[in-house]
Amino acid sequence: MKNVIITGASGNLGKAAVEKFVREKYKVITTVTPGRPLGFEVDREVETYEADLTDESSAGRFVEAIIAKHKTIDAALLLVGGFAPGGIDITDGTLLNKMFTLNFNTAYYVARPVFQHMLNQSNGGRIIFVGARPGLEAGAAKTSLAYGLSKSLIFNLANVLNAMAAHKNVTASVVVPSTIDTTINRQAMPSADFKTWVKPEEIADAMAYICSDEASAWRGTVLKLYGNA
């Protein structure tokens, strides 16, 4: 049985990812914010750890515990993040730091020890980040500058990890959804055409494929899941 870490498991995308990887017969190991339950049940046991991934020490202790117990980490889905609107007129240092902390630090603090461990595994491993359109397209970042800048670092990090893991069976991929079809997003944008949005389950399916044997030849993957948006 392969082991997968899924951070941010209590979110909408996290729930879809947990359910998908349970169906794919992975041993699923999740993180939740301290004091916040997973919030749903699945058909098979899921290990849940409370960890503050904005804190490097907390994230490091979590990864160390997983390695000590399970020995191998086959995949890591780093889903923690947050959004904030705002152009350059309101994007001050406070907003920048908030977005960098939520979207980059939480990913880096887990990816760093996981990546180092995967390099020493005989079976390698897969790390999957969540990017965003404003992190790729300057025009899309005009009204969400701090968010776009923080997400742009995710692509840079994945590129560096892939360069470091050249000729190893370790890859870093970035899935890039457009607006995700969630209850919160529907409430925030009630006049939008929800049919053009991408569903959490579709993103989870893509992540599972990246981790599958069928995608073993994929390297440096940036997978855009824009739907019809």
How does this structure look, described?
- This protein is of the alpha/beta class.
- The protein has one domain (3-225): Rossmann fold, CATH 3.40.50.
- The protein is built from seven helices and seven strands, in the order βαββαβαβααβααβ.
- It has helices spanning 12-23, 56-70, 93-119, 133-136, 145-164, 183-188, 200-210, and strands spanning 3-7, 27-32, 47-50, 75-78, 125-130, 170-177, 222-225.
- The chain has a seven-stranded parallel beta sheet with strand order 3-2-1-4-5-6-7, with helices on both faces.
- Helix 1 crosses helix 7 (200-210) and helix 3 runs parallel beside helix 5 (145-164).
- The longest helix has 27 residues, at 93-119.
- The relative contact order is 0.14.
Descriptive tags:
globular, seven-stranded parallel β-sheet, 41% helix, 7 helices
In short:
With 229 residues, the protein is α/β, with parallel strands linked by helices. Helices cover 41% and strands 16% of the residues.
**Total strand segments:** 7
Globally, the shape reads globular
**CATH architectural category:** 3-Layer(aba) Sandwich
Quaternary state of the chains: single chain
What is the CATH homology-level superfamily? NAD(P)-binding Rossmann-like Domain
Give the radius of gyration: 17 Å
The low-confidence parts are none
* Name of the CATH class: Alpha Beta
Strand content: 15-25%
* Average pLDDT reading: 94
Give, in spatial order, the strands making up the sheet with the most strands: 3-2-1-4-5-6-7
- Share of helical residues: 40-55%
- Please report the number of helical segments: 7
Main β sheet profile:
7 strands, parallel
| Topology order in helix (H) and strand (E) letters | EHEEHEHEHHEHHE
How many domains is the backbone divided into?
A: 1
The rounded distance between the terminal residues' Cα atoms is 37 Å
Protein structure class: alpha/beta
CATH fold field value = Rossmann fold
